[in-house]
Specification:
Length: 206
């Protein structure tokens, strides 16, 4: 029975059982909201993190050691602008996960078909004077939850934002650039934002 059904209504607030079971349920709901948050935030960060990562890779490869500051500043400005636009696009329709989202996630991960969490505080409207209906509704509300509620690891839908899997290429570039930079990695990253810090950085990879 859905909370949007004409037969039930979910009052404001959140159903919380008394005692240890209620405390455990609240903790699992909080973790479920965090898991959903991760699943929504991570894809929204792409391609912004890709732009930042590519700029860092250029710095680690030593490109900015031989690039005039005027050109480097233009590249930096372009990277900052592109990152801002990408973040705006990624978070334009972003919504924080609700408690209802968390309840549905727990029900899905634990294969609870009767929604004992998300509809645990519904009130019977139609048939409230019918003893049979009251008994069935009480049985529905009293349906026991598992002692341990499982929660799957976050599974961000990254492919929807990066169907060409460019983030894998970015990881390869960053790994290669770190190998090239060796002990100079700090100086090269600093030089990516400082007109004078990159001077004298060696371009030798070995």
């Amino acid at each position: 029975m859905s909370s949007s059904s004409q037969k039930t209504i979910s009052p404001a607030g959140w159903p919380v059982d008394a005692g240890a079971r209620g405390a455990r349920l609240r903790r699992r709901l909080a973790w479920a909201r965090f898991v959903i948050l991760v699943e929504r935030v991570v894809p929204a960060l792409w391609p912004a993190i890709g732009i930042i990562g590519f700029y860092f890779a250029l710095a680690l490869f030593g490109l900015f050691a031989i690039t005039p500051w005027l050109v480097q500043s233009l590249i930096l400005a372009a990277a900052i602008t592109a990152t801002g636009l990408a973040l705006d696009d990624g978070f334009r329709d972003f919504q924080m996960p609700t408690r209802q989202d968390a309840a549905r996630r727990l029900e899905r991960d634990n294969k609870l078909p009767h929604r004992p969490i998300s509809e645990g505080d519904d009130l019977l409207l139609a048939g409230s004077e019918d003893p049979v209906a009251q008994q069935l509704w009480a049985r529905h509300r009293a349906r026991a939850l598992p002692d341990t509620l499982r929660l799957a690891w976050p599974d961000p839908d990254f492919d929807s934002r990066d169907p060409r899997r460019l983030h894998l290429i970015l990881l390869v570039l960053l790994t290669a650039s770190l190998i090239v930079a060796r002990s100079d990695w700090r100086a090269r990253l600093t030089g990516a934002f400082d007109s004078g810090a990159a001077r004298g950085i060696s371009l030798d990879a070995w």
